User: Fold this.
Amino acid sequence: MGRNQRLAFPPVLESITDLTKSQIDNLLSLAQTFKVQSKAYNVFNPSWIRPPTIVTSFLENSTRTKTSFAIAIQKLGASYIDFNTEKSSLQKGEGLEETLLTLANQGIDLIILRTSVSHQLAEFKENPPLKIINGGDGTHQHPTQALLDLLTMLEDGAPLKGSTLAIIGDCAHSRVGHSLIDLLPQFGIKIILCGPKEFLPEAAPNEFVTMTQSRDEAIEKSDRLYLLRIQKQR
Assistant:
């Protein structure tokens, strides 16, 4: 990734729409490079001037996302802290912004934050207390999961442009589904949303998305299937 792209990268990655197509392409290329290095040496080799200190803070439960970030951070040679929200001052009434400012003043460079509140990170975009990556916020977005899914599609060898992906399940409440809707059309992928009426949005989000309640129709018209569980907690 070139110097200009690094400087332009959003300090708060809340949504896929925060990234340009060029930045997404650079991220995919960088991820592939890191993946090759990881398989060969079980470690990446970034040229840090100073290894950053990165925190994960999950205000909502997680297994895969949190563990994936923890492994990646440590393989990158950065310092990793798991911020236990249940034992923090958030439980004593401290606001999230106060917590982030405290962490920033203690030398934390980046926080990966998950929250059950949709759009909660938007308030920090104008004046970020520190760099933030959205690890999933309510029913809004899960940008890093969508980028990972796109990388998987890229590596499976089948063409992206002109293909169709069917997202089947609880499309209305899936934050990764919302991120995919913003991401995949940039690579020429059409999307079919499929599920019972209560699991679909009221209208198609954009011109690249169609909707159906017929599972057979979705399967017949698609090249790839993306299956979602029911978001019972939503």
